[in-house]
Design goal:
InterPro entries: Host-pathogen_enzymatic-act (IPR051200), N2O_reductase_N (IPR011045), WD40/YVTN_repeat-like_dom_sf (IPR015943), YVTN_b-propeller_repeat (IPR011964). The protein is mainly beta. 5% of the residues lie in helices and 53% in strands. The longest helix is centred in the first third of the chain and has 19 residues.
Length: 347
């Protein structure tokens, strides 16, 4: 009996090693990838010093209420990780994690029936900003006191979802209004830019020149010039089923777009599109897992991490070869994803 068990254990180990293959990267410096397991009620933590090691942070509160996370975001200063989550009673919380211990530091209850979507922080990690889809607002929270500072009203039937912060402004994707709201944080002024499609998420080039927005229904990516305010439409390949999240490399040369599908009765997708930022053209299509959703690039621009919601995995793409080199098992139905390193986090 013991011999049989030993054989089974060895077989399992061989399967795990073969799934990573010879492409498994050499040990990294202290860095992690945080993944929001929406159906699992947890945050998966991939330790990049040993990518076979994945732990989970249970978001259930002391009263036994299970909170389901949608989005996760590392603070730029590396001192906290922020999660948007909702329980079965539609209570919405921001949950703050200490990345040094991977334990919950604080819970900020923002209300009921808000449907919190995404959260970002300003460059100094002084304030967090979170979209509340059902109330058409962006909520600002002090990152030190955890108190609500103010609420930005975007207008009726906007349904804000993804957002990013850059140079004192928030760029918010509105699914219902089919627009991008630009919020000047200093004075609270909101400007709406019509896009002609269901805007899901925004991305910012690190050189501060462009904002990118995914349009799910029209299967496009918008390239918005911050200098000229001109809009360039980037049509995705005919195989596209509906883009969701997107992220630019630190050198502002490439843009990675997770093509999810499923919404609007579309088939799910296993594609990530690569766009050249300079000429606004699709350069490559990379196959990942089923229902690609979240995407983030590491601080050195070497690896891209993509959540595969239906496979309960994260695909790792090598930027140099433009191929998915291995996958990491995570929690149930992963969505949002964020990259953390010892002294900071990717915005």
């Amino acid at each position: 009996m013991k011999r049989t068990v030993a054989v089974v254990v060895v077989a399992i180990c061989l399967v795990m090693v073969s799934s990573y293959g010879n492409n498994r990267p050499s040990p990294f410096k202290m860095a992690k990838v945080y993944v929001a397991d929406e159906a699992g009620g947890s945050i998966s933590v991939i330790d990049l010093r040993d990518s076979l090691k994945t732990t989970a942070i249970d978001l259930t509160n002391s009263a036994g209420s299970k909170f389901l996370p949608h989005n996760v975001q590392s603070a730029p200063n590396g001192k906290s990780v922020w999660v948007t989550a909702e329980d079965n009673n539609n209570i919405n919380q921001l949950i703050i994690i200490d990345p040094n211990t991977d334990t919950i530091r604080e819970r900020v209850t923002l209300g009921k029936d808000l449907h919190l979507a995404h959260v970002v922080l300003d460059d100094e990690s002084k304030n967090a900003f979170v979209t509340a889809e059902q109330t058409n607002k962006v909520i600002q929270v002090d990152a030190t006191t955890y108190r609500v500072v103010r609420k930005f009203n975007l207008g009726t039937e906007h349904a804000p979802h993804g957002l990013r912060y850059s140079q004192g402004k928030l760029y918010v994707a509105n699914t219902a209004a089919k627009s991008m709201s630009v919020i000047n944080v200093a004075d609270g002024k909101v400007t709406d830019i019509p896009l002609g499609g269901m805007a899901v998420q925004t991305a910012v080039s690190r050189d501060g020149q462009f904002i990118f927005i995914t349009l799910y229904d029209t299967k496009e990516v918008i390239k918005y010039s911050l200098k000229s305010e001109l809009i360039t439409r980037i049509p995705l390949p005919v195989t596209a089923r509906g883009p969701i999240q997107l992220y630019a490399t630190p050198d502002s040369k490439l843009l990675y777009i997770a093509d999810q599908g499923k919404i609007m009765d579309r088939p799910t997708s296993n594609q990530v599109f690569v766009v050249g930022i300079a000429d606004a053209k699709v350069l490559n299509t990379i196959k990942v897992g089923n229902m690609a959703h979240g995407v983030v690039v590491d601080k050195d621009g070497l690896r891209v991490y993509v959540t595969n919601t239906m496979d309960n995995t994260v695909s790792v793409i090598d930027v140099a070869t433009q191929k998915a080199i291995y996958t990491v098992p995570v929690g149930k139905e992963p969505n949002g994803i964020s990259y953390w390193f010892k002294t900071g986090g990717m915005p």
